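Justification of resources, computational component.

The compute hours requested in this renewal are based largely on the per-chain cost of generating structure records like the one below. Each record pairs the submitted sequence with a full structure-token output. That output is archived, and it is also reused by downstream analysis tasks.
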Amino acid sequence: MYKPTTIKDIAKALGLSTSTVSRALRDSYEISEDTKRLVMDYAEKINYKPNPIALSLKERRSYSIGVIVCEVANSFFSQAINGIESVAYKKGYHVIISQSHDSYEREVINVQHLANRSVDGLLVSMSAETTDTSHLKQLHEQGLPLVFFDRVIEGIKTHKVTANNKKGAFEATALLIKEGHTKIAHLANAPHLSITPERLEGYKAALQAHNLPFNEDYVQYCHHGGMIYEEVEEAVRRILQMPDKPDAIFVASDRLSTGCLTALKKFNPGNMQEIAIAGFSNSDVINLLQPSISYVRQPAYEMGQIATEMLIELIESNKPIREFSNVVLNTQLFPHDAPPVLKVSG
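The structure output for this chain reads:
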């Protein structure tokens, strides 16, 4: 009768403890590279296949990570999830993905569901509607490891991974100014999202650097992050009907960019070229949009990788971690006449 090889068998053969073998197989930072190589080579030699149920029962872990994002169809988040999975699966963890659709209620339900499924930790990017974060604070206080990425909150002391939103916004706005535009509106996300004031700050800094006045009326907020098209349409309509109509728009996100173009085609069909657009976007088809737009691309894949490595470090630590990192990654600006970006991910 076939009897599968266990971690105990590997430990006995190599003269190691079962806990050392278990951590080495998960590529834990606690185990030396030489020991990892010894264990991995032997496991491959005997064609060892781990038993996830036995592992979870022994160590009281589910070896699963919950991920909460606003929308998987969003190019930025799909790329971030690819980065998350590339690290998680290599280290023996499964990934459970949940979408909030930028709804506070959906986010709360998803967080509770994942916690009830005994995930070992959560990777979270906040929804546009969320102002009350007590559902996350409570889990954090109870000891569930959390790491935030892209849309973060300051009220919870843990690791955070973001892009340099101020720099990206500055460069996009400065490009519009360099092209000769002097009346630049800003189509922004919900005011309370962490990315919103950072991108607004970069927009204002670019205006100041080029001696252009800041017009508060030019800033139009979309409180649902572009999930409700009518809200974006109304914001664009207000921009177009201003007495001193803007000649360019800096747009804060992917979904807002596509919504903005759709609204412009509705309200300004014969003069699409008279308003230039620059904004944040990780879409792989951004260069196909008409009119073409300049865009700021975030390192979504790397953001997902780093956030996952940080979360697994929290999960596997044998002692409380008191020092946390706030990692800020650089963005890249692509002018509207730049060649298409090649998608590179693991």
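DSSP finds twelve helices and twelve strands in the chain. Residues 300-316 form the longest helix (17 residues).
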